[in-house]
Here is the input.
Amino acid sequence: MPISYGQAILLGLLQGFSELFPISSLGHSVILPRLLGWNIHQNDSYFITFLVATHLATALVLLGFFWRDWLRILRGLGRSLRDREIAPDDTDAKLGWLLVVGTIPAGILGLLLEHKLRTVFASAQSAALFLMVNGLLLFAAEALRRRAPHPEHGDPDDRIGRRLNWRDAVAVGTLQAGALVPGISRSGVTMGGGLLVGLSNEDAARFAFLLATPIIGAAAALKLPELFGSQGNGVRGPALVGALCAAVTAYLSVRFLMRFFETNRLTPFAAYCLAAGLACTLYFLV
Amino acid sequence: MPQTGRIAVREPGSARTESVSCAVVERGRLLVWLAVLVGLALIVLAVVYWAEPAKSLPSWLPGHQEGSNHHHVKHGIASFLVGLACLVFAWFRSAGPRPGRATA
Here is the structure.
């Protein structure tokens, strides 16, 4: 069996929380097998199939966690299409279109560049280096933020809708494509982008999680045939176990992070990425 | 005969009403038609990507590869999404003035 159940449990638990914490799940999935001496590489077809399952689980957890919000957002989108306008007081429609506008560039870049970037940046060494870059980006986002990190009151969707314009949504959404490079965190760059365009930590995290759901879900859905096709032979059992573990840690992570960012900042994650990236780089060198 | 004068319009998503010239309105209409044409062309292109193998694609299209039977499904999805986005843009931009909100 290419991935044992023990490996599947560990990788699933890691994927679930590192996908939502701004610390790069792909980077950790590349670095951990190398650190533990496992013969698993991110370009192995069975490992990609395994990752599809864990990503799908994460996307479903996000969808489930924000299901009421998604229902409101979809209704808002429907209303605006029917009326052929986004009414000024329709927060759900505005947020929905901001998410659509933010998802399109990341989706296109992901579709066109994913394979090439995966091939170029496949090694654990480059993932460790980019983990350090991720740490620096998070530090920079906190340093260059437009809004002071005070807790805020009122409806977060209303605040996001008022503070983001279409250009901001495109910019923040495009940043997600950075996560195609192992070591760069999707949630990290989108939260950082959110801070740069004037959102608070809490709103930036909320927008990042909402923005991540369609992209992670679509990327996983696109590769589902590989899980159920011949490529999935021998890996479906561990993939299912890994997906369940990922679902548990993803749920705990999103609950924790939504509370954490009400009063806290990206700085601890930036420090972790910088320290872990540096330690792994040195370890791989010697 | 060219249209002259000004018209009051409201931007989607904004409570503000602005007075703009008819030339701007004409340009807006042109943009709508352009978006519809580009949108439809991209959706047709998506179908071509899905239906034809890489070797049968026109040589000027990204993804053309001599002797390859690979179907560029992802290129097709990207093309379809951008096409759809153009059509949605046209749908919103082509909405006429609403009663009580715009005056000629």
